Amino acid sequence: MKIKIISSITVLVLLASVDTMAQKTLGEATKGKFLFGTAVNMQQVNGVNPIETELIAKEFTTIVAENCMKPQPIHPEENRYNWDDADKLVAFGEKNKQVVTGHCLIWHSQIGRWFFTDADGKDVSPDVLKERMRQHITTVVGRYKGRVKGWDVVNEAFEDNGTYRNSKFYQILGKDFIKYAFQFAHDADPNVELYYNDYNVETPAKCDAIVGLVKELKAAGCRIDAVGSQAHMHMNSPTLEATETSFKKLKAAGVKILITEWDISILPSPYDGANISASFKYSKEMDPYREAIPDSIQQKWNKRVLDMFGLFLKYHEVIDRVTVWGLTDNTNWLNNFPIRGRKDYPVLFDRNNQRKPVVDEMIKMAEKQ
Ligand code: 9MR
After folding, report:
1. Exposed, middle or buried by CB within 10 Å (0-12, 13-18, 19+), for 287?
2. Which end of the chain, N or C, is less surrounded by CB atoms within 10 Å?
3. Rounded to the nearest whole angstrom, what is the distance from the C-alpha of residue 276 to the centroid of ligand 1?
């Protein structure tokens, strides 16, 4: 009888500890190493699906707006700002004691055409564009002063070959538009961290160009705290080696690294970038896992996640934050990019809002380090 009672107690204790382990979140497991976060959309902030909203509140130590703080949504016309969504998102993060990042101030995409054009539809002069940038940055950064830890000040200014992207900002102001953006942001909130953010940072020519930019900004006396590596990844690219090399180069440049938009597409890809204007035709061959993912492919994806996460942990002293681009596979941007209407499985929660088994492995890895 006694033995029976003792063994039932042991089983209960064991069950309880397994349960606590399962309950541990990535945010908790990575504390002291880096912040761990997700991008959130407004349905999630508004609690349209309460399960998603609760998961975001519980699992992550940091959030970033997937869209609502970008130039077009927040500043659709010269004299009109749209604060509702961004205000709610920042308050949501504060309520959940999460660090909020601002994304993004200056980007060639998701920006109103008005920003670059005069009343006749012609390009504005360099002075006018610079003044519009100043007003935009001062107003947006000023509004969230003290509530946002850092801003992606400039997003995606380089091509993969390391040349400047021929954006309207570049055409009208030349490369100095980047310096102006950093200066305006710092003037608006001297305490806020400032980041340069881009995709394919693992590509050597692009990484070198970003390192060059960091040096130029520092030489000009500008504040730059970190480079954001978006880390939109595929099954075979970038390699671990290329990713590690990019970390080494950025570390040597004297900036922190942020993994800002991490996802790993499981689908075949006709294109390796994240330039949102790229698009390709749908075919069944390019959408092979509509019904299910073969076990061997799932294992390969899991390994890729763990390999990359292991690398992030290895560099935790220089990596301040790891943010996954979206909560679940269901609402993920990659279902429609670069081909519309596919079924991808790129993030850590599945279509039923369940944590993928790989998350438990990640938690174990983080706790071992
Ligand atoms: O995930 C975002 C998607 O909902 C938007 O439609 C898209 C519009 O440009 O932007 C996506 O987020 C992008 C991010 O802001 C910057 N890096 C690339 C991301 C994926 O396109």
Report:
1. middle
2. N
3. 7
d(CA 131, CA 129): 5
Task: Tell me 154's DSSP state.
Answer: E
180 Cβ partners below 8 Å, 6+ apart?
130, 133, 134, 173
CA of 302 to the centre of ligand 1 (A): 24
What single letter denotes the amino acid at residue 156? E
> Does the domain made of 34-368 have the CATH classification 3.40.120.10?
no
* 4 HSE (CA, 13 A, CB side): 1
Quick one: tokens of 87? 């205000």
Cβ neighbours of residue 333 under 8 Å, at least 6 residues apart?
66, 325, 326
Catalytic residue, candidates 156, 244, 361, 367:
156
pLDDT along the chain (369 residues), means of 10: 50 46 85 98 98 98 98 98 98 98 98 97 98 98 98 98 98 98 98 98 98 98 99 98 98 98 96 82 96 97 98 98 98 96 98 97 95
Question: Whose structure tokens read 């899991």?
Answer: 302
Q: What are the angstrom distances between the C-alpha of 200 and each of 157, 191, 230?
A: 12, 29, 7
Distance separating alpha carbons of residues 99 and 149, to the nearest angstrom:
7
Cα atoms in the Cβ-side hemisphere of radius 13 Å centred on 225:
17
Annotated catalytic, 261? yes
